[in-house]
Amino acid sequence: MPDSVEINEGETSLIVPAVHSSGGPGKRIGKVFFNSQMAFNRDVSVMLLRARPVQSALDAMSGTGARAVRWGREIGGGMKVTANDRTPEAVEYISANIALNRLEESCQASHDDLRSLLARRAYDYIDIDPFGSPVPFIPAAMQAVKRHGVLGITATDTAPLAGAHPRKCLRRYDAMSVRSPFGHETGLRILIGHLIKEAAKEDRGARCLLSFYADHYFRTYLQMEEGGAAADAALGKLGYIEYDKTTGKTTVSMEPISHRSAGPLWLGPLHDSEILKDMNADETLAAAARCKKYLKLWREEVDIPFFYENDELSSLLHMSPPRMDRLLEQIGASGKVSRTHFSPTAFKTDLEFNDVLAIYRDIAGEVSGHH
Question: Please, what are the domains in the chain?
Answer without folding.
Answer: 4-288 (3.40.50.150), 307-368 (3.30.56.70)
